Amino acid sequence: MSIISKFTVGSEEGIDFLFDLKRLQFKQICDGVIEPEEIDQLIDKKLDRRDAINELNDLSSQMVIVFENDKPLGYAIVKSSYEQPEILEDKKAVYLTFYIAAEYISQEVYDSLWQKCLSITRSYAHWIELPQNDPLIPFFERSQFKICGQSHLKQFDIPSHIMVRNQQ
Fold first, then answer.
1. What InterPro entries is this protein classified in (predicted)?
2. How far apart are CA 77 and CA 18, in angstroms?
3. Following DSSP, what letter does each residue of 76-140 receive, concatenated?
4. Domains of the chain
5. What is the pLDDT of residues 109-123, one digit of tens each?
6. What's the predicted TM-score (pTM) here?
């Protein structure tokens, strides 16, 4: 496998990659939770190109996409965190959105994406909110993330874990 993670800008191509991956992510999260025909309606409602371009062209956000031979396998968005878990109060922290398509989840793919994110955030604490059944939780735990709370993903109204990694 030729796995590489790259910083990606909010260009048309970057947004196309992101939206293709987000569609897969939404379908994975919603599988068994809402009716299949409602998933496409939800995706259409939640994915707005203009909002995504504005978010990714904001200096407080960075997008990383992991590829195998130019095929996008997953993405991460690193954002400056103003609202963060209490455990991170008074710390510099970043919020991560992190997804790898189910058929490509492996230590190699995760490590590539995580190490690229870490390359720009090493001096920060990190936090992420994941569905409680997310297959990436063990990978984050091996990267020194700890579950510090429970919540509900607002977009989907499903139970979630808040995971934190204090700066090293």
1. Acyl_CoA_acyltransferase (IPR016181)
2. 10
3. EEEEE-SS--GGGTTS-EEEEEEEE-GGG--HHHHHHHHHHHHHHHTTSEEEEEEETT-TTHHHH
4. 3-165 (3.40.630.30)
5. 999 999 999 999 999
6. 0.90
